[in-house]
Structure formats: structure tokens, C-alpha cells
From TrEMBL, chain A:
The keyword Chaperone applies. It comes from Rubrimonas cliftonensis. PANTHER family: COBW DOMAIN-CONTAINING PROTEIN, COBW-RELATED. The keyword Chaperone applies. It holds the Pfam family cobW. This is GTPase, G3E family. GO terms for molecular function: hydrolase activity; nucleotide binding. It catalyses: GTP + H2O = GDP + phosphate + H(+). Residues 264-358 form the CobW C-terminal domain.
TrEMBL record, chain B:
It comes from the Bacteria. This is Uncharacterized protein.
């Protein structure tokens, strides 16, 4: 650790903590909280969390709060805006977006080069022992960032994908500007749609009724996420980084379709009986190929032939994560539920398409 | 390698995920993998037939996508199936299109 790279901070628990430099490549800022050092070796797939949110929505404040919690004692941090967490400026350089995007729209071509380089650099230094063996990564995006290229970089980069798994995505929405932002900023709608945890910030600056209304609106816009006020004691760092699929509430379907802002709609499909996994894969890949830009989110649980446990599916635009087994059915009821958040796409058309290509879909809403 | 852009190491499509703890895949053993590939080819061909394309297996490692006149492309995963199919057919495979749904049938 260089002297220039060290900064003393005061944790919420009262213990001094040292942030040490981890990102040595040009254009990359990174930090690893070095104390206390994790005793255990790093996990096979290190969880990587995206912290997103519109400009001025309180991402950095939330990041500071997260880093002061023991749950993130061994976390590495990548930041792509200058100086946001007050680390030494010599170590905080912007991660410029160097997106390689072919006209084919192929997912694997959408790779943010410097982010991939930064992540690889962290891995190299972890392997060599140059930095503490971080057990978690938090990536704080710029306020205008679309989450999709960031998540797809982690998923598509051949090295990052072998060392990281995508953990919960966290979005901040500020109570003062959030309602207007949802109506007018596509970036914010995409951030909210991609989130597993949505944190309402600055609610103390608005009337309680306005904060409650925005909380309800966010919950309706993204039924796949859990929404909490930043002042809620339950909005703890440990909850923010918990695996999204571990929570049964995450996949609860909405009672009806909700439209918000400029054409963002959440709706659910509840297939009857077991889902044909093969047909589902062929259909969803075809749907995302043609309409991936308008499908902000797909998330759900499926009952699949031959599988007692539910299988969780989770995607953001054209990126679909590896499906996972869940431990048990929410409510103990074996029932498939798929939640979509779309923009510019007719929910009924998606339902008809599911019924045609996969079969058994009963729409909700 | 991605056949469209040449990027290495992207063959881990979600529908054919590498087996690891907690992940649902039908890729865990050779027999299950072969069976799933056969099912996938049947399911895709039901749709591809609408625009006279055919998908077939190539040595258990890739797929051959062919037109009725014999033009053939090699693809590795479902991620590349639909862009390649659209290029070969010269028209979109849009699952929301009632015309395509009508060709597929119930």
C-alpha cells in the first residue's frame, strides 16, 4: 500500500479502518478495506454488487455507510466517478467507458474494456497477495449509467465470469427528485428496473405522504425488488448485499400490470403446470434477441419437470444470469411466476407469445 | 468463441450453464447434456421451420444452422442462434409477431 493511497476513516463501529489502493491501472480507482483481514480464503465466485442510482441520489453516502459495516469488512470497491468516496485523488481516476459494440447487438460484444481491466487487475493483485483477499466487490456506477453494460461485462468477460458472480444490484432513488426522474429519465427507470434492492434516500426532506407514495410507486414499478427507506433500520448493509434469490418476497408477482412514467410496465405471467425448460430457453433467447432493449427486467421462479425445488431466473435486458436452485417454494405453493418490466412492449403480446412458444401461460393483470 | 465478434470465452449461455453449486443446468453429465441438446434442437427447429431453416448438432460441441439451399453457419449457443438465423433468413424471428405465431401453431 502506498502512503499516498492510504486514508484513515472512522467506521460506524468506532474502529479506525484503512482504505488501501488496489487499482493501479490508468483510469481505474479501486480500494480494498484492509482491516480486519478476512481469515478465510476468497470464495470460488466472489459476489459482485452494482450500486447504481441517478445523479445526486445518495449513492456515495450509502456506499460509505455500507463500508462502515462489518458485513463489508473484506469488500473491494470500484468507483467510476472521480473522488466520490474521498479516497486519495491520485488513486481515483475515472473508468472511462470503452464499449465495444458491434451492430449485431451481440451481448458478448458489449464489454466495458476498462471495467474488465480493473476487475482483472483486482484479481491479479488478490492472487499475488498484493492486496487483502477481498471476499466481495462493490461497483459504484455513474449516475447516468445504464446498468446493463456493467453487468454484462462481469458476465461476458472470460476471466471475470470465472471469478465473480453477480450479487444483489442496489439502486438509490432520492425522495426529492425521484418522481420527476421516473417520468423523464430513461436511465433512472433502467436503474430501478435492474435493482434487487431499492433504497429511498432523503425522505426526511419531503412530506411523509410523498415519501410513502414514492415507495409504493417504486415497489409497483419493480415487483422483483424490495424497496426500503434509507432511514429504516432494516435497510442495513447486510440486507443490501444478501443474495436476492434467497428471499421469497423477491419473486412475488404483482396483482396487476402497472404503468409508470413513459411506458414502463410491470406484469406477471403465471404458467400453469410444469414449464418446459428447453422451450422456455429457446423462447426467451429469441425474445431478448429481438426485444432486449425494451425488456428492462425479467425475474421469476419456475416449476420444471423433474425438479422438486423451484428454479430462479433473473435477467436484465439481454443479460440473463445462470439459473439457480432455490431452497423452497415461497408460501409452500409450487407455482411458476415470471415478472417482466417492459418499456414500449405490450404485455398481452408477451403473454400470447409465451402461450404459443412455451405453453401454459396464464397472465396476471 | 463468439462466432459474431470473435470474443473468446463466452460459450457459457444461461440455458446451458456450466455446472457449479447452486446453478440449475442440464449440463452436469454427458448423457444429460446430449439429451438436452437433442431437445433444444427439436424445439428450435419447430420455430426455424417457419422460415425454412434447420438446426443440427455438430459433434456435440456446436450447431449447424442451414438454409433450404444449403447455406450453413456454425454457432455455439442460443445466444448466437437468433441473430444468425435472421441473417440467413433475411427476416426477423420475432416471437411477438402474430404471423410467426400463426406459422408455429398452438
Amino acid at each position: 500500500m502506498s502512503a499516498a493511497g492510504a486514508e484513515r476513516t472512522q467506521s460506524a463501529a468506532g474502529a479506525d479502518r484503512t482504505l488501501c489502493a488496489a487499482g493501479a491501472e490508468p483510469g481505474v480507482s479501486a480500494a480494498v478495506d484492509a482491516a480486519p483481514k478476512p481469515a478465510a480464503p476468497p470464495p470460488r465466485f466472489t459476489p459482485a454488487h452494482l450500486l447504481t442510482g441517478f445523479l445526486g441520489s445518495g449513492k456515495t453516502t450509502l456506499l460509505r455507510r455500507m463500508l462502515s459495516d462489518p458485513a463489508l469488512a473484506g469488500a473491494a470497491v470500484l468507483i467510476n466517478e472521480f473522488g466520490e468516496v474521498g479516497l486519495d485523488h491520485d488513486l481515483l481516476e475515472r473508468i472511462d467507458e470503452t464499449t465495444v459494440l458491434l451492430q449485431s447487438g451481440c451481448l458478448c460484444c458489449t464489454i466495458r474494456g476498462e471495467l474488465a481491466d480493473a476487475v482483472r487487475g483486482l484479481l491479479d493483485r488478490r492472487e499475488s497477495g498484493a492486496i487483502p483477499a477481498f471476499d466481495r466487490l462493490v461497483i459504484e456506477s455513474t449516475g447516468l449509467a445504464d446498468p446493463f453494460p456493467i453487468l454484462s461485462t462481469l458476465r461476458a468477460d472470460p476471466i471475470a465470469s470465472q471469478h465473480f458472480r453477480i450479487g444483489a444490484t442496489i439502486a438509490t432513488v432520492d425522495a426529492v427528485n425521484g418522481a420527476a426522474g421516473l417520468a423523464h429519465r430513461a436511465e433512472l427507470r433502467r436503474q430501478v428496473a435492474a435493482a434487487d434492492r431499492i433504497v429511498l434516500t432523503k425522505s426526511d426532506l419531503v412530506a411523509p405522504e410523498a415519501a410513502s407514495a414514492l415507495l409504493a410507486r417504486l415497489a409497483a414499478l419493480n415487483p422483483a425488488a424490495v424497496v426500503r427507506d434509507a432511514h429504516d433500520p432494516a435497510c442495513a448493509p447486510g440486507w443490501l448485499i444478501a443474495d436476492a434469490d434467497a428471499s421469497p418476497r423477491d419473486a412475488v408477482a404483482p396483482d396487476h400490470a402497472h404503468a409508470h412514467g413513459v411506458g414502463a410496465v410491470a406484469f406477471a405471467i403465471e404458467p400453469q403446470g410444469a414449464v418446459d425448460w428447453t422451450a422456455f430457453g429457446v423462447w426467451l433467447s429469441m425474445l431478448l434477441n429481438r426485444h432486449g432493449d425494451g425488456i428492462l427486467r425479467v425475474k421469476g421462479i419456475l416449476a420444471i419437470d423433474g425438479e422438486d425445488a423451484p428454479v430462479a431466473v433473473h435477467g436484465v435486458q439481454r443479460l440473463v444470469h445462470a439459473p439457480t436452485h432455490m431452497a423452497a417454494w415461497p408460501d409452500g405453493r409450487r407455482a411458476s411466476r415470471l415478472v417482466f418490466i417492459v418499456e414500449g412492449i405490450d404485455p398481452q403480446a408477451v403473454r400470447r407469445s409465451f402461450a404459443c412458444f412455451v405453453g401454459g401461460g396464464r397472465g396476471v393483470g | 468463441m463468439c462466432a459474431l465478434c470473435g470474443v473468446l470465452g463466452v460459450e457459457d449461455h444461461w440455458s446451458d450453464a456450466v455446472a457449479r453449486p447452486g446453478v440449475y443446468t442440464r449440463n452436469a453429465d454427458p448423457r444429460a447434456r446430449r439429451a438436452e441438446r437433442a431437445r433444444r434442437i427439436r424445439a428450435a427447429n419447430r420455430i426455424l421451420a417457419a422460415w425454412r431453416l434447420t438446426l443440427s448438432d455438430w459433434q456435440g460441441r456446436a450447431y449447424l444452422l442451414s438454409t433450404a439451399t444449403g447455406r450453413t453457419e456454425v454457432i455455439e449457443t442460443l445466444a448466437h442462434l437468433w441473430p444468425t438465423a435472421e441473417a440467413l433468413a433475411g427476416r426477423p424471428f420475432d416471437p411477438l409477431d402474430p404471423a410467426l405465431q400463426a406459422r408455429i401453431g398452438p
